[in-house]
Structure formats: C-alpha cells, structure tokens
Amino acid sequence: AGGLYQLSKAGKLCVPAMNVNDSVTKQKFDNLYCCRESILDGLKRTTDVMFGGKQVVVCGYGEVGKGCCAALKAMGSIVYVTEIDPICALQACMDGFRLVKLSEVIRQVDIVITCTGNKNVVVREYLDRMKNGCIVCNMGHSNTEIDVASLRTPELTWERVRSQVDHVIWPDGKRIVLLAEGRLLNLSCSTVPTFVLSITATTQALALIELYNAPEGRYKQDVYLLPKKMDEYVASLHLPTFDAHLTELSDEQAKYLGLNKNGPFKPNYYR
Amino acid sequence: AGGLYQLSKAGKLCVPAMNVNDSVTKQKFDNLYCCRESILDGLKRTTDVMFGGKQVVVCGYGEVGKGCCAALKAMGSIVYVTEIDPICALQACMDGFRLVKLSEVIRQVDIVITCTGNKNVVVREYLDRMKNGCIVCNMGHSNTEIDVASLRTPELTWERVRSQVDHVIWPDGKRIVLLAEGRLLNLSCSTVPTFVLSITATTQALALIELYNAPEGRYKQDVYLLPKKMDEYVASLHLPTFDAHLTELSDEQAKYLGLNKNGPFKPNYYR
Amino acid sequence: AGGLYQLSKAGKLCVPAMNVNDSVTKQKFDNLYCCRESILDGLKRTTDVMFGGKQVVVCGYGEVGKGCCAALKAMGSIVYVTEIDPICALQACMDGFRLVKLSEVIRQVDIVITCTGNKNVVVREYLDRMKNGCIVCNMGHSNTEIDVASLRTPELTWERVRSQVDHVIWPDGKRIVLLAEGRLLNLSCSTVPTFVLSITATTQALALIELYNAPEGRYKQDVYLLPKKMDEYVASLHLPTFDAHLTELSDEQAKYLGLNKNGPFKPNYYR
Amino acid sequence: AGGLYQLSKAGKLCVPAMNVNDSVTKQKFDNLYCCRESILDGLKRTTDVMFGGKQVVVCGYGEVGKGCCAALKAMGSIVYVTEIDPICALQACMDGFRLVKLSEVIRQVDIVITCTGNKNVVVREYLDRMKNGCIVCNMGHSNTEIDVASLRTPELTWERVRSQVDHVIWPDGKRIVLLAEGRLLNLSCSTVPTFVLSITATTQALALIELYNAPEGRYKQDVYLLPKKMDEYVASLHLPTFDAHLTELSDEQAKYLGLNKNGPFKPNYYR
C-alpha cells in the first residue's frame, strides 16, 4: 500500500486504487490473527525450538508484531520489543513488554524476529553480537529487514541444515540460525489458513467489483480505503463459520445512535 | 464525539472542534487499558465477587468491551460477547469469545456488563430472566444502557446494601445486584489512574493549543481528528514513566520508508 | 502446617493432626486462585496504581506467587521472580518470568511483593535502593517477610496517607509506599471471597469430623494429609456453583484404570 | 507408572522401582510444558487449522490437559473440558473453562482432544455425532482413548490425505479428520524439544544411579518416588539455560524455615 501512496503523491497513479491492505478485516486477519499463529508454526517447523523460558526480541509492534508478541508471551517466552513510533511503543508497555533498543538485549536473546517493514533493522553489527544458537527470522513485509548480504563474506561459513534453515558460522564456532534466508517466515515456513485467505480474497474481490461498478466520478486517480460497509460485509460473511450470532439494532436504537440498521456501524477511520 | 459530528452535519457547529476522543492514545488508554483494570476494580470494591469460574456476558466489543473481556478472561471467567458490528464480532471470535445474542445466555450468566454506547441494551425482559444474584453494571458511555427505569415499579423492591450497590428484589425473592444505578461503573466505583488522566489531559491541552495557534484557515467549522504527530507526541511524553527506550530511524531508513525521522510515523487513519 | 510438622518431629504433638493447608483444594483456592484476585484488589484499593507497564518483582513462586504473577502478567505488568527452590524457579522460567536475585532489579521495579513464607526477604539494604514511589507489600504467610522494624529509625519519617498505607520518607525525599505495615495484604486490604471461605471451612470441618469419627488406631500423634477422597468430596460439593457437569467412569473404564467409580481418582501425592 | 503400582500391589514386583513419571520436573516438563507447545505444533503440521475462534473440547484436565487448554485458550480457541475427578474439574472452572459432559458439546466442536489416560473416551456414538470436518486426536498416554476400531466398519470409508492424517467418511459425506490413527499426537506429529528430553533423561539417569548406589535395605521390592532432593537437582542443572539466578537462603533464614540451605526445600508430597 505504501507504494501506491508514493505513486499517487508523485502523480504517477493512472487508475483509481483501493488500499485493501488497510481495511480492518485484512489488517487484523492477515496480520494480527494470522501471524499470532504462524510465528509459532514457522519457528517449530524449522527449528523445533521450545518457547517456554526463551528470551525473544520482536522488532516492531504493529499488527504483526502484536500477534507475534502475544503468541510468544502466552507460550512462556520473555519478550522484548523495539519500536520507532511512540504510540505503538506505549502500547507495547501497556501490554507488558519491555521497550528496548536492540543493542540493549541483543547479547542475551535466543530469538530475534523482525516485523517492521523497514530495511536493515538487523545489521551485521547485531549479528556479530548475538549468542551462539540465536535464531533470526523475518515476519515483516520484505526481505530487507535482516541484512543478509552482510553475512555473505568469506570469514563466515554457511551450512544448510535443512530446508529453509541455514547455520551461519563465525570463525570462533558461533552459529546463528537464519530462517528462510531472511525472507518472510510466515510465507516460507508456515501455512496461511484458508480462513485468512478467504478474508483477504473476499476483500480484494469486493474492492475490484466496487472499482468496476462505481459510477463515473466516484473514484479518481488516487488511493482509496475500502468503504467501511464493504469491510463490514466481508466480516459478516465469515461469522457463520464460528456459529456467531450478531445482534440487530432496534429502530429506536438505530435512531439513537444515528446509524442505519444495516451499517456501516463505525466511522471510516475506526480500527 | 458523536454529538460533535451530528452538530457538524446539521451545520450547527459554530467553531472548529477536535475529536480528541478518537485519538489513538485517548482511545487506547482511557478505554482499552483503563477499563481492563477498572472493570475488575469496580466489581471487587462493590461486590467482592470472585471472578474465577464465573459466567459473564459483555455487551459490545469496542475498546471498552475488549478491555473488560481480556481482564475477565485472564481472571478465569467464562466470557460471552454480544455485538452489532460484524467486524468487532469477528474480532471477538478470534479472541476466543463466543458471540451470542443476549437472550441465549441471559439465564445462565453471573455478571452482565454493558459497553455499547447504545440505549436499552439490557431491558426489563432480560432483567426478568436473570438468575438470582446476577450482577448488572454499565461500563459504556451513558446511563441509558440498562433500562433502570423499568425496575422502578411497585412489584419490585429496592434494597440499598451499600454505597453504589442496590438489590432489586422480585416477588419470588430473586435478587439482582445493580451497580451504580446503571451509571458508569468505572467512574462511580473505581478510580481512574493518574497515568490515564495525564494522557487524556495532555491530549486535550494539545488540541486546544493547536486550535488556538493554528493559522487562519487551517480549521473550519468542522470536526477534526487530532493531528497524528500530536498524538505521537502525547505518547512520547509518557514513555519515560516506563523507562522505555525508543529506537530512532537512520537517515537511510527514513528515506526508505518515506518518513520524517521525527514522525508522524503512521498515516492518519492508522489505529 | 510447618509448625505442626516441627512439633511432631520434636515428639511434642499430643493429638493426631490434619494438615488441611496442604490439601489440594485448600492450596489451590486459598492460595493460587484467591491470591490471583486479591493481589490486584489489595493493590488497587490501597494505591489505585495502574498495573499496565509497571515493573514488579515477586519474591517466591509457590502457589501464592504463581497467582500473583499470573494476575499481574495478565494486566500488562512486567514481572520478575526470585526463588530459592530450583523446581519452582524452573517453573517461573517456563511461565515466562525472568528469574533474578532481588539485588538485580530492586532499583528499577515499581512494586515489590513477598510470597515466600520466609523472614527478612526484603531487608533495609533493599529498601534503601528502591526508587521513589516504590510500593512494598506482603502476600506471604507472616509479617516477617519485610523487615519493617528496620524502617523504624530516626532518619526516616513515616506518614500515614490513608488506612493501611504508609509513606516511609528518606532524608533525600524518597518515598516508599508500605502497605499494611508489612502484614498480609490479602487479609488486610482485600476481601476473601465467600467461595474460598466455603472451601476452606468445608475442608476443616471434614478433617475434624474424620479425626473425631475415625476408629481408634487410624491416626496416631502425628500429622496427616487429608484423605484424597475427602479432598475430592470438598471439590465436588462446590461444582454446582459453576453449573459444572462431571463425567462418570463406566464400569469398564474404572476397571481399566484400577479405580473405584466414586474415587479417589488420584494417588495421595497428586497435586 | 500405573503398571508398576499394580505389579507392586499384586506382589509381582521383583526389584525396587522409581516412579520417575511422577517427579515434579518430569510431570511438569514432559506433560504440562511440553504439551502446551506440542498440541499446537501437532495440529498445525497435520491440518494447518487456524486456532482462533475454533471450539475445542479437551477430555481430561491433568497436566497434559492443562497444557493443551492453556495453549488453545491463548490462541483464541473456545475450550470446553470434561473430567471425572472433581478436584481437576474445579480447577478447570477456575481457569475459565466450561466443564461439560462430552455429549453436551460434541455436535458443535471443531476439535476433540483426549488427554485422560483412560480407554474408550471417544466412542463411535460420539464420532457419529461430530460435525463435518471435526478433527479428532489423542494427547493421552495410549492409543485406546479414541475407539478407532469402531471406525473400521464397511459403511465408513477411510481416505489417507497425508502422512498421519486420515479422513473417515460417513455415508452422507461427513468427514472426520483423524490424526495419527488415534495414537499420540505429540509423539507422532510433533517433536519433543531437546530441553524436555534432557530433563526426562536426567531424571531417569539419576533414578538409576540412586537405585544402583543405594545402601542395601534403603529400597525394597516396591515403587518409590524420586527423592525430592534429586528432583530439585535435575531442575537446578537446567536453570543456566535460561540465565536464571537462584536466591540462596541465609543461615538465619534456613534456621527459621527448618531447612538445609542446599535443600530439599519442599516436603516430598509437594507438587
């Protein structure tokens, strides 16, 4: 989605676009709820590591980071968080995670997970200081978060121990366990539940239908958020899976709230 | 904030207004994080109820409802949720709560908590069907969620058992424990931590300063969300309390992300 | 219970005694489940402290410590644990708590909670190093865990700020918030739920009935654990409160397990 | 361990035996902490199921059941528990799980997990009533908990969909997903962390050394629990893995508690 906004700013977007990535259902399911499960799954399938008692640092406390942290905390890991955004940082504090700079904990942690969307978050300097056996992986949106290129130097030996798992070996024998060569762990070493795929695909399909059907002039050459009502529609289509029973507003209540009984129920900016 | 938007729609807003209620820090702290604690505190101080094993229904899964549910689940309660909005409903499912209509569980629950912002959520019909000893309270934003007026009828006896606690007694001897006469439990029977007050007050003060200092024309007679950067500033002022250490973007990273190193770090709609 | 065993060892116990304190129901309810709630309640009623983001050290990871840690972790506190027993220490690790010596964290924590049953766990040396505003309280079984006597010296000023809450003030202005003068927080500043009282009282009554009714010779002048079957009976009496439905063994299953269909279902040492 | 006690009762045990299975470290790690992780791992590797929002029934709330329930609850599943033992049943209630008979929920659950050590817990009658797609697996100690033999009948079709995963297909098309043909999921479809193996192996080795070295007469032809001190020793050997720092008793404290400074720190029955 970031790319679309940059194109738009630069005046280079030649069609209307929907930023489906930032619809609530997409964000919460593809990022928060899916990653809460796939971080555990990806780590287990590749390393068989036990989570209990492990010290973990999670870089980034957006939806993906929140999911990773919640899962690992629940499994008995001791989790530290790094953040650049003070709002997300404060949320990490309130959720019970120590907010640190990477350099403060890099020597002691057993697992390093990147979820920033940024580049060069884990650079060679940090990799040099990790302890023997430290697991390094990326749950963010690109393969740039870990500076893997910096590990392709003559003094370090790479040993492929199994599919998606490399040991990078320092001259003194220290080994770092690098997963998926720094690419996305959740896509490379875990599976995406059909339920999440269904939500994402429904969102994308509805966005396309909306763009196609919209009367001329509704959308210009710009980036739009999915209309709230469609976002709600995606969610409502998936409730029966859980045998979930929605409550309906009475006429009196709808009037009191100033809402249509069929939604949308929240302002567009609500997350 | 709802009222401001209604005034604005009706063209009756005669000054610019900031909707500080929907800034991230306000929302999360005043609603989610504060209520996560005050629901337990309010119930304990008034009723000394043990949470473990209790069946609870929480009406509404916005920030307040999320906080109440998380706290009670953590204390060993079995929590059911009601919702009108399919997005919030789906979140309740993914967080491990059965989504029900109130009528499905009203006979079996030990505690009923309203967090909807709506009116007449718990009406006499439901009160009639609650079991003996059921505790009823309101964590939403008004005193209208529980239809308390419907309980002021001759066949029901009210007994004030202690400050903020009434027993409403049915002819067959059944007692409902009504807290704060249906007004806000968190304000009536719990305390608001100074930390939360500080965040809310800072947000309000910054909003006023911004409105006062803004060059003419920046704000019209409309409702505005607090600029993201100010929201982030409020958060950053409160990080030292937790000895929390923020990470700074390098120049290269800021460029990669297309961000100013000092923020804002997220689009305005980000929550 | 410790006292009984010491009497017995010394040959000074002149009647049979039941160690009801170590029956499973008593241990779990009076200690684990009750303290999980009363630590929050006791702290809120006395200090109105917000738990989210606070750093807390809990001394002792027995049932009481486990309850305190679980509750505070769930409320978003960052919890450290001290222990002398390696088994409990390892459990703390697996439950996600850093196991430290008190001296490692005493300067940084916001709350200190003792749950050891030991004496002089928090001594003057530690009190001197706590930060301004640090809250100190005792959830263990005596008033000896915090060396309160060491604070009754001329250079320190005591200020009673409200019932059960003293500020102890150092010459440099630092204040420590001492709760209940070091006596039990859960008894002094919280309430014991009737459900827990019921379990404890039932256990004690059954133990007395058993000692009274037992045929001569069943019990000598020694300390006995409550027979498993009675422990199970106490539990079964309290299940209807939760509308809990027990499964019955079939004859075939009871035979397979070598159990009587009516219990006891576990060996005596099972906890 | 049950077998040893039966042999002993029958007078057929011809050597001393250690019940290492019931030592605290073995119980907690091999059962509680290991299963807390392997239930998620085993289900993911075989079925890629998403846990969030799923309804699950766990049969048995011993250490294994407690681990399974805690993990699934943390991942957002809605968990029901069945139990025969009122003490464990009451614990399930206090931990926030509805205690039901299997027949009450069998039609609605998405996943059925057995952890009882019993036989014929999930019989054909229940399998007939499960909904389409229901996953059935066994985390208990034998292959007898699910009556798999009852599914080997002509009207049902078996389809092996992948290693360790069978679809059993009813005439109406309903499919049950049976894992590991009813054998142990944690051993068949997950991995046992080296940390857990190390604890178990250390416990077993110490037990053998003790039996071998013990002076004549210390052990008769009976079943013994591992001496507490050895149990503690096993734990202490594994603390450095977590960089965990144990506190030492002072002489004064040891005297106060009536303990040796080097342990054992708890009575033998302590769990």
Automatic annotation (TrEMBL), chains A, B, C, D:
Signal peptide: none annotated. Pfam families: AdoHcyase, AdoHcyase_NAD. InterPro entries: Adenosylhomocyst_ase-like_sf, Adenosylhomocysteinase-like, Ado_hCys_hydrolase_NAD-bd, NAD(P)-bd_dom_sf, S-Ado-L-homoCys_hydrolase_CS. GO terms for biological process: one-carbon metabolic process; S-adenosylmethionine cycle. Residues 31-192 form the S-adenosyl-L-homocysteine hydrolase NAD binding domain. One of its GO terms (cellular component) is cytosol. Its cofactor is NAD(+). Keywords: NAD, One-carbon metabolism. Gene3D superfamilies: Adenosylhomocysteinase-like, NAD(P)-binding Rossmann-like Domain. Belongs to the adenosylhomocysteinase family. PANTHER family: ADENOSYLHOMOCYSTEINASE, ADENOSYLHOMOCYSTEINASE 3. This is Putative adenosylhomocysteinase 3. It comes from Oncorhynchus kisutch (Coho salmon).
